């Protein structure tokens, strides 16, 4: 039977900023982590054979008091995973919650209900949160949107709920494509999702806004085509950029003709809005 391993870093005291620890987990493929207070600790799950020893070694090198591991059989995984995904407020209006946990909404709240499965995007990672926050600045009523690297579809759902129309998503992972389609239906919105990379699988035509929550190298490669596929005056929201890569991403965007209009930072990550 396949197994998962829970890896938990226990610290001598809670840090002021947990982001270096969450990013260390992310570097080893764990996007969802659970923080506990007594004792202060951070934990996440790795699939069998996916570098548990390397993660444990890096956590110890980073100063963890100790690192605990626990093997979880796959039949228990679907239950164990759920504690990593809890309702979260994002920005001024978004509330992102798992399908299995209710949340009492306020009068101006915009709800996004997800079951991401194996796809990236629960609103727990800074790169996703910042994209949703930057989306709130845009007047999306009736606007066309492309979500490049859509993962769970969280950003596409958010765009639809802000009034966008003609929303399309694309992801190179088949599980993400399925997850996005299911989450669109779950939220009562409609958008097309395509399997592939970049703009290639998408219908011809330009967009008012493009979302790209992907790695820096992909953003740099994508910049010229993003400029050509965004309408004059349109917007490119990018995320997934670590601080050391930001100058290269900024240079690539500006070289194509984009103007930086907004920059946001959380922990080690940067997101930005460019205007064509």
Arrangement of strands in the largest sheet:
10-9-8-11-12-14-13
Radius of gyration: 19 Å
CATH class assignment of the largest domain: Alpha Beta
Task: Tally the structural domains.
Answer: 2
Predict the CATH topology of the largest domain: Rossmann fold
| Broad structural category | alpha/beta
Which keywords apply here?
276 residues, alpha/beta, Alpha-Beta Plaits, 2 domains, 4-stranded antiparallel beta sheet, 30% helix, globular
Quick rundown:
The protein has 276 residues and is α/β, with parallel strands linked by helices. The protein has eight helices and 14 strands.
Word description of this protein:
By secondary structure, the protein is α/β, with parallel strands linked by helices. It folds into two domains: 3-83, Alpha-Beta Plaits; 85-275, Rossmann fold, CATH 3.40.50.150. Helices cover 30% and strands 32% of the residues. It has helices at 19-27, 52-61, 74-81, 126-135, 154-161, 174-186, 216-229, 246-256; strands at residues 3-10, 34-37, 40-47, 66-73, 88-90, 94-98, 110-114, 145-148, 167-171, 192-195, 207-213, 230-242, 259-266, 269-275. The strands form three sheets. The protein has a seven-stranded mixed beta sheet, with helices on both faces. A four-stranded antiparallel beta sheet has the order 2-3-1-4. Strands 5-6-7 form a three-stranded mixed beta sheet. The termini are far apart.
């Amino acid at each position: 039977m396949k197994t998962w391993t829970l890896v938990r870093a226990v610290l001598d005291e809670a840090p002021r900023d947990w982001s270096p620890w969450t990013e260390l987990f992310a570097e080893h493929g764990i996007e969802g982590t659970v923080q506990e207070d007594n004792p202060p600790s951070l934990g996440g799950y790795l699939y069998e054979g996916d570098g548990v020893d390397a993660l444990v070694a890096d956590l110890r090198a980073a100063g963890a008091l100790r690192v605990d591991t626990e093997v979880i059989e796959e039949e228990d995984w679907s239950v164990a995973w759920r504690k990593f995904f809890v309702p979260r407020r994002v920005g001024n209006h978004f509330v992102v919650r798992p399908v299995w946990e209710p949340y009492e909404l306020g009068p101006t709240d915009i709800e996004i209900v997800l079951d991401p499965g194996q796809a990236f995007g629960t609103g727990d990672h800074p790169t996703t949160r910042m994209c949703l926050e930057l989306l709130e600045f845009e007047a999306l009523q009736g606007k066309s949107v492309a979500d490049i690297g859509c993962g769970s579809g969280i950003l596409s759902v958010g765009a639809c709920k802000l009034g966008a129309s003609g929303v399309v998503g694309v992801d190179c992972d088949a599980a993400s494509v399925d997850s996005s389609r299911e989450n669109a239906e779950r939220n009562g919105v409609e958008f097309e999702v395509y399997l592939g990379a970049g703009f290639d699988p998408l219908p011809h035509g330009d967009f008012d806004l493009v979302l790209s929550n992907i790695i820096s190298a992909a953003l740099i490669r994508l910049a010229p085509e993003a400029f050509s596929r965004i309408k004059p005056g349109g917007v490119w929201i990018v995320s997934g950029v670590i601080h050391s890569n930001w100058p290269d991403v900024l240079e690539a965007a500006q070289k194509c003709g984009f103007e930086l209009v907004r920059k946001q930072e959380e922990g080690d990550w940067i997101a930005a809005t460019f205007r064509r």
